[in-house]
Design brief:
D-Maltodextrin-Binding Protein, domain 2, 10 strands, 46% helix
Amino acid sequence: MTDRRIWLAKRQAPVLVAVLLAVLLAVLLAVLGGCSSTRTESKPPQQPKPPQRIVLATTTSTQDSGLLDVLVPAFEKAYPAYTVDVVAVGTGEALRLGEQKDADVLLVHARADEEAFVAKGFGIERRDVCYNRFVLVGPAADPADVAHASGAADALARIAKKGSPFVSRGDDSGTHKKEKSLWAASGVKPGGAWYIVTGQGMGETLKVASEKQAYTLTDEATYLTMKDSLDLSLLLGDDPSLYNQYGVIPVTGARNEEGARAFADWICGPEGQRLIGSFGVDRFGRPLFTPNAPGGEKS
């Protein structure tokens, strides 16, 4: 080998080494990149979202009768994304909770007030859900002879004339609103020692009437559910004025408006209506409420 060739070989050696190292590095990086792309990054398991809360403001009659003990678990099973918190108050208070958006959906029974609530923009819509009847109950001796009255208004007039004790809820509930309309129809303005105001729900008011052997107006479902613990008899119920319609209203702009709509759709749908129609049959041989929202019809 000539001196020139030896000199060139020495000059090119570092270059060749650098090229060889670059090639090896590129191969190594490609291999490592391939390995990392085939690895699955470990991620923490996703936690299930907690159910969203729906606040249902409803009458004490749906609570005291036991109807909600059937409906609420069935809804939560059908819609596991939601959980229902029940606030059982009078219809007037339930409507006020809706106005203040402290409730998402209402299940109440004072149709004129419900329709006014929706008309003012507080409710999205109102739907019929079910109905039963109000009844007048009182002592079996029936000192005011209510059982022979021509109707509910006549029965209240007889009670007032006799001065027999009458227990009123006095809480602006749907039952209280009905009572006030019946007093107006009777031409009597109730008051005095014989007229007792509890300011409480239906169950507690029935207990007071039983203790005092007084008359009172109640929804039939609550009375039948509590009958065995009361010393009261059903004296009058066959009067069209005692019709008791329940409605459901999702609240406009509610904290959980989507959940409110879901509950309204469900209770007016096939499953909700089926459960309402069967409630009480096993114990009383007939339903305590009659469903009347086939197909979720809107009123």
